[in-house]
Fold this protein.
Amino acid sequence: MSVAGGSTVTGNGGAGQPVPAPRAVVIDAPNRLAIRRLDPQRPGRDEAVVRVAFAGICGSDQEIMRGTRPAGYVRYPIVPGHEWSGTVVTVGAGADPSLVGRAVVGEGFRSCQTCDPCRAGEGNLCSAGYDETGFTRQGAWASHLVVPARLLHVLPDGADLRAAAGLEPAAVVAAACRTAMAVPGERVAVVGGGMLGLLTVQMLRAASPAELVVIHPSDRRAELARRCGASRLVPVDDAAALAGRFDVVVEAAGAPGTARLAASIARRGGRVVLTGIAADDDRPLAPVDLVLNQITVHTVFGAPSRAWTHAVRAFAAGLVDPGVLVTHEFALDDVREAFRVLDERSDDVVKVLLRP
């Protein structure tokens, strides 16, 4: 990953436009961040070059910066950025030339497509090993991004690219909601009022639940939760009163104790879906509680292609709008300030975007 000059490249077969040398945020090692120009890349066979419009910052990106992400799930130096939207500017040989000029988002997992999980449609669980844009491959905190064209999802003409940058977490949410299988009239709860939790609320409201409650540490997110479709917000300190109430509970916080909280508010025979990863959880799930209450627990890691399709269609139909959750935007040069805002962990901060 070396510093580049001012040269440009064009796609194989002449499709698209000249692509300038990319400018990117590079994390060389934990707490070592730089903004630099990189060597321009030609799209390989079946690849596309995307001009990035917006790129999100999430908790896993903070882990990269702090050095707390598990070693097998990051490769330094790295250009982060797994949540993004943009426009295709050129494609390589074998890729569909009609992609040029289209607004797109893209899946992150670089699966082998041949192992048993991949053939079963679970590319996020590829047995060839973990490989994902923004963690082991150059991500979207850059002016341009090279990705396999097969991973792109084309957006409707005129789509809001600022909102579309949130479709990666929306795909994770789609995977969780498909697993939860909430049906009309059920009582549903979402643990966590952050980006994942509030996107979950947006998607679950389409199932017409009898009740849709958000559980969050404070009630400062109450208005936003209601705007997303929640019946009400209950502070974590008051959640004990909800024990055994809900048919479906989706945990979307990933904080110590939230998995156990999710199970505690599910009714006997209820369903719980866990999406968060809480390190050093001092209050893990108790098997005796799960067995005696016959609670079904599912987990979600990332999103397979079918969940991405679900999320993009829901976005196109106006059922999911990540844009209402964007609270801050920063230019690429201001990425350090973006990290500072996130580190404050204020309830005024939901989703932070970079504008490469």
Remarks:
- Residues 167-180 form the longest helix (14 residues).
- The radius of gyration is 20 Å.
